[in-house]
Amino acid sequence: MPNPADVAAIHDLERQRHDAMLQGDVQALDALFADEFVFTHSDGVRDSKDVYLGKIRNRVFYFSTMEQPEEDIRIIGDTAAVLGRMVATVNVPAISLTKVLNNFYLAVYARTAAGWTLLAVQPTPAPAAAAA
Questions:
Q1: How many domains does the chain have?
Q2: d(C-alpha 43, C-alpha 4), whole Å
């Protein structure tokens, strides 16, 4: 059984990550992400930490709403996996797009000497039945 303090720490980091995404807080995200961080978008495009943060900094996309109605944290040793769901409104100004996302996601954290750090995030569109 995982240590409740570790589960609470990962839950708090996820809240910080989602708050920073909603606020476009690149500095906060930079502190949460490992140097090796990779974001794999639901269309398969992969962004390194620098590329992903650059997209947020330059408002290639931004979120106007974001909720996490589901979160299941699983920890084995020094690795934590968050199986969550995110419902959000994303805006892409360059193509005048506003879209509601209903995604399941996997976020992977690793415990280092400095504490927990985020290694990867991958969202997947939820099936229509999960939208209800």
A1: 1
A2: 35
